From TrEMBL:
Gene3D superfamilies per UniProt: 2.60.200.40, Probable inorganic polyphosphate/atp-NAD kinase, domain 1
One GO MF term attached to the UniProt entry: ATP binding
Native species: Sanguibacter antarcticus
Protein name in the entry: Diacylglycerol kinase family enzyme
UniProt entry tagged with the keyword Disulfide bond: no
Length: 330
């Protein structure tokens, strides 16, 4: 009797941003970890200005990749997640950018490439939500994208547009501070109609409106304290401070209540109610009609102007690799 055929070894694909990674070091670590885990030699796909990751990921899937390792910043991760689509191929994160927001919200290692690659090849799968957005442009065309962290209009998107990329490379998230000051000097209100889960639209005047699939930002700031990556809901924050008192309310709730009190069951008992300067809503589908074209951002990257958008959550649609449970994670 002939021996049964053995299953072929698995192969990973690395989709990498050459600006963000030390390619030689990454290749060495991947080669070591894939061999130790019994995987075949990984295949490599480079992103570019014209292809931030969607095309590279589709090529990787066409090549039969059993797992996609995304090595780059938030933009690379978003593009790879978008292209993975319905394939259910696991996504492993190799954080290499300024924000690394999905990795932060998954509580993954941020500054240890050896550990990140090891966890990719030896970890387990976790399902998380993905958000889809349809953006209506000023010329009435509609663009559809996915995002895994947040979408925003108003001060949030304007700040990103005004951020100096060279300064960002040198000082990281602190570059956003100067951009925020610049944005506040200009027209910094947006007017819109917002509907949640098909309810009657509400008129809103705000500095910024952010729709989040998860809640944590850099510097341990928890912008959306109740957001979770696998709850099937989108969390929305509307910021509309009108004066110094309003800004103090915003900072108090975000930095103190969200950042400190909300992190423990005991502390959550002392959270105050929403104030006009900072309002939260939740739903599975959010529709926004803007009074005039506004800049929009997805996962920290500008996506041009929008006159309207509808966004919804695809519950547990993305498979991500996380460390195996254990005291050391290794």
């Amino acid at each position: 009797m002939s021996e049964p055929a053995t299953a072929p070894n698995r192969v990973a694909a690395v989709v990498y941003n050459p600006v963000k990674v030390d390619l030689d070091a990454l290749r060495e670590i991947v080669a070591r970890e894939e061999q130790a885990a019994g995987w075949d030699t990984s295949v490599w796909f480079e992103t570019s200005v014209d292809d931030p990751g969607q095309g590279a990921t589709r090529d990787a899937l066409d090549a039969g990749a059993d797992m996609i390792l995304a090595a780059g910043g938030d933009g690379t991760v978003r593009a790879v997640a978008e292209a993975i689509g319905d394939s259910q191929t696991p996504l492993a994160l190799l954080p290499s950018g300024t924000g690394n927001l999905l990795a932060r919200n998954l509580e993954l290692t941020l500054e240890d490439l050896d550990r990140s690659v090891h966890d990719a090849f030896t970890g387990t799968d976790r399902r998380v939500d993905v958000a889809t957005i349809e953006i209506t442009r000023p010329d009435s065309t509609v663009a559809r994208h996915s995002y895994v962290v947040m979408a925003g209009v108003g001060l949030d998107a304007s700040m990103l547009q005004n951020t100096d990329d060279d300064l960002k490379k040198k000082v990281g998230w602190l570059a956003y501070v100067g951009a925020a000051v610049t944005s506040l000097k200009g027209r910094n209100h947006v007017r819109l109609q917002m509907s949640v889960d098909g309810a009657e639209p509400e008129s809103v005047k705000a500095h910024t409106v952010i729709v989040g699939n998860c809640g944590s930002l850099q510097a341990n700031v928890r912008l959306l304290p109740d957001a979770a990556l696998d709850d099937g809901l989108l969390d929305v924050v509307v910021m509309r401070p009108e004066n110094l008192v309003g800004w103090i309310q915003v900072l108090t709730k975000i930095v103190w209540e969200n950042g400190v009190l909300s992190r423990t069951p005991f502390g959550r008992r002392f959270r105050t109610k929403d104030v006009r300067a900072l309002e939260y809503v939740r739903g599975s589908t959010i529709t926004v009609e803007l009074s005039e074209p506004e800049q929009i951002e997805l996962d920290g990257d500008g996506f041009g102007e929008a006159t309207a958008f509808t966004t919804w959550v695809d519950h547990e649609h993305l498979v991500v690799r996380v460390p195996m449970a254990g005291p050391s994670g290794r």
